[in-house]
Design a protein that fits this description.
By secondary structure, the chain is of the alpha+beta class. Among the domains are: 1-48; 51-162, Tetrahydropterin Synthase, Chain A (2-Layer Sandwich). It has helices spanning 82-92, 98-115, 120-125, 127-144, 164-295, 300-323, 332-357, 361-378, and strands spanning 4-5, 11-16, 27-30, 35-36, 43-48, 52-61, 67-78, 147-158, 326-328, 383-385. The protein has a three-stranded antiparallel beta sheet, covered by helices on one side. The chain has a three-stranded antiparallel beta sheet with strand order 6-7-8. Strands 1-4 form a two-stranded antiparallel sheet. The two termini are 151 Å apart.
């Protein structure tokens, strides 16, 4: 809009003409907002509020009379308050670059004054103290011209060719070098000790390795010897087991052959002998019965018929015995028991027939039968017929 002026954020707008400013200033100060300005009747100028920098390189003499070249950097600006703006505007509005020049000169004078009261050792070791004292002494003077200092940095201190600072640092350098040499010697010693320790460890490792290898070789040799013996031992053991098996097989074959011979030769012969003996006994019994029958006139015909049938019964029994599988558990006594049993059975049959017919002779025959049966049953032998 025509006549409306606005200063930048880092500027102060100074309006001259018309009413005077605050405190009798020849202009009004406007910051942070705009204002209508009548053309021709009012004049507007702008003063920077931005940060400025000034460098100082001044040769100063210390309290010891040693010349030092001090380089410093000052960061400053116009104060934000109206009074500072008015003071700076009245001094630097037309030539604002002169703020840096004047600031440098002011600080150069204060540096010379303060360094003249200090020793080189204090200046070198207490730079922050030097900067603080320079700031404190220049604050009032800088405020009069509307400027404030944000920081002061001492960049370098040089004694030229005098070599005082270098000589001052010589003991420290010597101490540092001595410490460095000691550290180097200690490091060398530690390195040598480490190498020796490594050599000892290597030797110990070599020894342990040799021992392990020797033990391993011995173990391998023992295993190989054991393996070499294992084959013949296993073969001998196998042959021994084969011989034992063959011996057992031969014994079983002999036992089997013996049993076969008993079954094929002995038992048939014994059975045949027993059959013959039974026939003889039956024949004798028949003759005895014939004799007894001859004494009885009433039952002659019946007795003769029974007598005639008795050999046939015994023969059939003996024939069955010959064809049977007889296991004789007590030898010849067992065969006798078989024969006696057969004869007893024949007599029992005869006696039963006589009792049924009411013949008194049946009692005698029954008595004979009981006697024969008792005799047969009195034997302690055991016979099994299948």
């Amino acid at each position: 809009m025509f006549g409306y002026r606005v200063p930048a954020p880092d500027q102060a707008m100074l309006i001259s003409g018309g009413r005077r400013g605050q405190g009798g200033a020849p202009f009004r100060v406007v910051t942070g907002h705009g204002k209508f300005v009548l053309p021709i009747f009012r004049k507007v100028r702008f003063l920077t509020l931005a940060m400025c920098e000034s460098e100082v390189a001044e040769t100063c003499v210390t309290r010891q009379g040693i010349a030092l070249t001090v380089r410093a950097v000052i960061a400053f600006k116009v104060g934000n308050d109206t009074e500072s703006v008015v003071n700076a505007g009245q001094r630097f509005l037309s030539e604002q670059d002169q703020m840096a020049v004047l600031t440098g000169r002011i600080f150069a004078g204060h540096l010379r004054s303060i360094i003249g009261s200090m020793t080189v050792e204090e200046i070198v070791t207490e730079r922050q103290k030097l900067a603080t004292e320079v700031l404190e002494t220049s604050k009032t003077e800088m405020a009069k011209i509307g400027l404030i200092v944000d920081s002061l940095q001492i960049q370098s201190i040089d004694d030229g060719e005098t070599g005082y600072i270098e000589a001052m640092s010589a003991p420290h350098k010597a101490a540092i070098q001595r410490q460095a040499q000691i550290a180097q010697a200690q490091a060398t010693q530690a390195s040598v000790e480490a190498q020796q320790e490594a050599a000892r460890n290597q030797a110990e490792y070599t020894r342990q390795t040799a021992i392990v290898q020797a033990e391993y070789s011995a173990e391998v040799d023992r295993a190989q010897a054991h393996a070499a013996q294992a084959g013949p031992l296993a073969q001998a053991h196998a042959q021994q087991e084969v011989l034992a098996a063959q011996t057992e097989l031969a014994q079983r074959a002999a036992q089997l052959r013996q049993q076969e011979l008993v079954a094929e030769v002995v038992k048939p012969a014994e059975a045949e002998a027993e059959r013959i003996r039974l026939l003889a006994m039956a024949e004798a019994e028949r003759m005895k019965i014939q004799a007894e029958a001859a004494a009885s006139h009433d039952r002659v015909a019946l007795d003769r018929m029974l007598i005639d049938q008795l050999p046939q019964i015994v023969k059939e029994a003996s024939a069955g015995l010959a064809n049977a599988n007889v296991n004789v558990l007590n030898g010849t006594d067992g065969l006798g028991e078989i024969a006696a049993g057969l004869v007893g059975q024949g007599l029992t049959i005869l006696d039963s027939v006589r009792r049924n017919l009411g013949t008194p002779d049946g009692e005698n025959a029954n008595a004979d039968k009981n006697g024969g049966s008792g005799t047969a049953n009195g034997h302690s032998g055991r016979v099994e017929i299948e």
